[in-house]
């Protein structure tokens, strides 16, 4: 089995979590280096975290109308940062985006900024996101999830598409999950923990600016969040695996934090 789908849906479209109203079109499923522009609105849980000058610096994923999951290393601030939902084109001002103030931030208590272990943070929005055909939550992979090496998953974001290029449009790429042992052969045995999952090393990768964004896999018609963009090659080397925070490993903490707050 791949995973047991679950989601924290307080108010969601009839389709439920992980089912975009606008269907993604994925080449080869094909930086985000060596990826492609996504169909506008086809990844409705993707959020942009921006500063007060509307500059994007990290991604995130909507998991219910009040909560967004992102990376702890993004160092999100309630005072100077905002969550933007429904974004696709940073240069088009007529998109029906939703901008939300952040009410609370919960960083994993065992997050290690030196090793990026447990690199996860939860953001509680001050007002609920309005669910539309362009804004809806992703499912969360179960703590029982087993994501087999070779599984094709998708990562999305506005990170650099090369060492200097930041895209105007939301980018996507399909890339294979690789085994922990293979990942350790690239990064060293002690750097890859049970709270990490690796993907890529196949000609495409996530890059700076994608941090906090989703790695999602399709199962039974629904997309599930299995990873959060965490760290990787400083030069965005597409032949080196990117490392993602492993959502199944931290699902208990996610459930507890949302349930208590």
UniProtKB/TrEMBL annotation:
Organism name: Menidia menidia
Residue span(s) of domain Peptidase S1: 32-259
Record localization: Secreted, Extracellular space
The EC number(s) this enzyme carries: 3.4.21.1
Domain of life: Eukaryota
Keyword Membrane: no
Residues spanning the signal sequence: 1-16
GO BP annotations, alphabetical order: digestion; proteolysis
InterPro entries in UniProt: Peptidase_S1_PA (IPR009003), Peptidase_S1_PA_chymotrypsin (IPR043504), Peptidase_S1A (IPR001314), Trypsin_dom (IPR001254), TRYPSIN_HIS (IPR018114), TRYPSIN_SER (IPR033116)
Protein name according to UniProt: chymotrypsin
Top enzyme category: hydrolase
GO MF assignments: serine-type endopeptidase activity
Keywords: Digestion, Disulfide bond, Hydrolase, Protease, Secreted, Serine protease, Signal, Zymogen
Main location: secreted
């Amino acid at each position: 089995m791949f995973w047991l789908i679950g989601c924290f849906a307080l108010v969601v479209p009839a389709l439920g979590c992980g089912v975009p109203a606008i269907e993604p079109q994925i080449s080869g499923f094909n930086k985000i280096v060596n990826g492609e522009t996504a169909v506008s609105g086809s990844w409705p849980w993707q959020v942009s975290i921006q500063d007060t000058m509307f500059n994007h610096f990290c991604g995130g994923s909507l998991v219910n109308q009040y909560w967004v999951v992102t990376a702890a290393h993004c160092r999100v601030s309630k005072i100077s940062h905002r969550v933007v939902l429904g974004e696709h084109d940073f240069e088009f001002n007529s998109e029906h985006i939703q901008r939300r103030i952040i009410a609370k931030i919960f960083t994993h208590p065992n997050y290690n900024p030196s090793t990026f272990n447990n690199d996860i943070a939860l953001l509680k929005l001050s007002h609920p996101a309005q669910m539309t055909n362009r804004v809806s939550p992703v499912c969360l992979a179960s703590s029982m999830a087993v994501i087999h090496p070779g599984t094709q998953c998708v990562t999305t974001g506005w990170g650099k598409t090369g060492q200097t290029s930041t895209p105007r449009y939301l980018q996507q790429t399909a890339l294979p999950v690789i085994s922990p042992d293979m990942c350790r052969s690239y990064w060293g045995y002690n750097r890859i923990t049970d709270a990490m999952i690796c993907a890529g090393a196949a000609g495409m990768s996530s890059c700076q600016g994608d941090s906090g964004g989703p790695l999602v896999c399709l199962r039974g018609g629904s997309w599930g969040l299995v990873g959060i963009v965490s760290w990787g090659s400083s030069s965005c080397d597409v032949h080196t695996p990117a490392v993602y925070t492993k959502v199944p490993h931290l699902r208990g903490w996610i459930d507890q934090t949302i349930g208590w707050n």
